[in-house]
Amino acid sequence: MVYKVPHFIDGSFIYGSGEKLQIFNPATSEIAGELDVADINLVNQAVESAKVAFQTWSKTSPAFRAKFLFRYKALLDQHRNELATLVTQEHGKTLVEAHGSIQRGIDVLDFACGISSHLKGDFAEEVATGVDCYGLRQPLGVCVGITPFNFPAMIPLWMFPLSIACGNTFILKPSEKDPSCSIKLIELAKEAELPNGVVNVLQGNRETVTALVQHRDIKAVSFVGSTPVAEQVYQMATAAHKRVQAFGGAKNHCVIMPDADFAEAAKMIVEAAFGSAGERCMAISVIVAVGEKTADELLSVMRPLIAKLQYGPGNQAHVDIGPLITKEHHQRVMDYIDLGISEGAKLILDGRNLESLAKQAGFFMGASVFNEVTPQMRIYQEEIFGPVLSVMTVADLDEAIHLISEHEYGNGTAIFTRDGYTARQFADQVQVGMVGINVPVPVPVAYHSFGGWKRSIFSDIGMYGDEGVRFYTKLKTVTTRWFPKE
Ligand code: NAD
């Protein structure tokens, strides 16, 4: 039976009459569900509901809003198995990975629970005789969040809890490929007594996004997705005078110094490159081996680990790697492997036709590794977003830093070394927003902030943490003078 995924407007779950889109189970390739694309009428209804709710919600105290967030957090904790099941069912990643992503989302909710401290502002007494000055952080109004398919619970949780904690109201437009988590998240918010209109959810695609981003009553847009769309949404939103943060794609390099702990590095890189089938914006997609022998040494440790990886539906206990999201995306990744071969890279591990996958009907693909990749190749320049790892060799650390800094993307990077000075030089000089030292996927914890550089981001304010509070509030500075009574 094909399920239907509703919208959530003004406290009610509703269905519209827009274009129908299918949702697949990527582990079986079967059509599992469908949604209808929110058209301009539904967009107008959602914006109106959020606008009306803002009048009241923005006047509640941060402590009142935090009480809701605490109730919500307790419910998310209680229902994390259901959420993880939905992530696995529609995205395909393993249950372990799904649980990890939900925890990361809940961590940001945890941060948002402390909103009273984050909004308390600053005060300077006696800036001139009898004059004081203080800063207020006030909410913006109705904010929009547009999210990608690869973290259907975590990325919405990066956005709306903090936005509403700051006193805004919110409209979430989740990915049309795995929208069911958004509905579970909102059901739980309703159960936690979130007032109607504070968060609305619209299912849809480009049509819905365009109508939302250009709507006159939307004040801010948070976007996470691919770079071409991030750039488009950024341009559209800024042209309409919205505040916008748009996070895009990535190509994350991992430098291996000759003194690295190869056993530890290999273990972590296999997970960082192929976990979630490589569909992570912080996945390691390029190894930069420093020195003549490093690549061979590392690959000799990695090969048996890769050979042991188990593929299959993400809800099976022994599985390490689930399917890719859609048939089209699977084909796109396969095409990149053909391209790499034609560009002259050496395909040393070919995951395209694994025997163990022959009987699987889903969009599965094994781990592939290219060696002798060069900066001129498109498989190096472009984001593949699948289980495909490139290996390159450079002479020294300076060359590694230069290579990485020249790449158009600048989301994450990592270095494996036992030398503190080398690590410090790397962290200081590399032109990338998030850096790991012997940590391959350096996603910052919730009380720091997430954000890449270069074409991995359009705007200069990161997600969650202090940057998130800054994004979802506007600063007002009040200078006061009081006269004595006559
Ligand atoms: P996508 O860009 O195709 O879609 C993202 C969102 O934009 C979806 O909600 C989609 O409905 C909407 N959309 C798609 N095309 C649109 C258009 N032309 N106009 C307006 N809206 C449109 O991305 P995806 O395939 O869902 O996600 C994968 C991408 O997201 C990868 O490139 C990955 O690196 C990136 N990503 C980045 C981060 C980060 O923090 N930098 C995090 C996760 C994913």
Termini separation: 79 Å
Structural class category: alpha/beta
Rg, rounded, reads: 24 Å
What's the multimeric state?
single chain
Can you count the helices? 16
Strand order of the largest sheet: 15-16-17-14-13-19-20
* Large-scale geometry: globular
Largest sheet: 7 strands, mixed
Q: Please bin the fraction of helical residues.
A: 25-40%
Total DSSP E strands: 23
Mean pLDDT: 97
Low-pLDDT runs of 5+ residues are: none
Strand content: 15-25%
Bound molecules: nicotinamide-adenine-dinucleotide
Structure report:
This protein is of the alpha/beta class. The chain has helices at residues 40-57, 62-78, 80-91, 95-113, 115-118, 154-165, 180-191, 206-214, 227-239, 262-274, 294-307, 327-343, 378-381, 397-406, 420-429, 465-471, and strands at residues 3-5, 7-9, 12-14, 20-25, 30-36, 122-128, 131-139, 142-146, 169-173, 199-201, 218-224, 243-247, 252-256, 284-290, 346-349, 368-371, 388-394, 409-410, 412-416, 434-437, 453-454, 457-458, 473-481. A 7-stranded mixed β-sheet has the order 15-16-17-14-13-19-20, with helices on both faces. A 6-stranded mixed β-sheet has the order 10-9-8-11-12-22, sandwiched between helices. A 3-stranded mixed β-sheet has the order 1-5-4, with helices on one face. The longest helix is centred in the first third of the chain and has 19 residues, at 95-113. It is globular. The termini are far apart. 52% of the residues are buried. Bound molecules: nicotinamide-adenine-dinucleotide. Nicotinamide-adenine-dinucleotide is lined by residues 146-151, 173, 175-176, 205-206, 209, 224-226, 229, 232-233, 247-250, 281, 383, 385, 411, 452, 456.
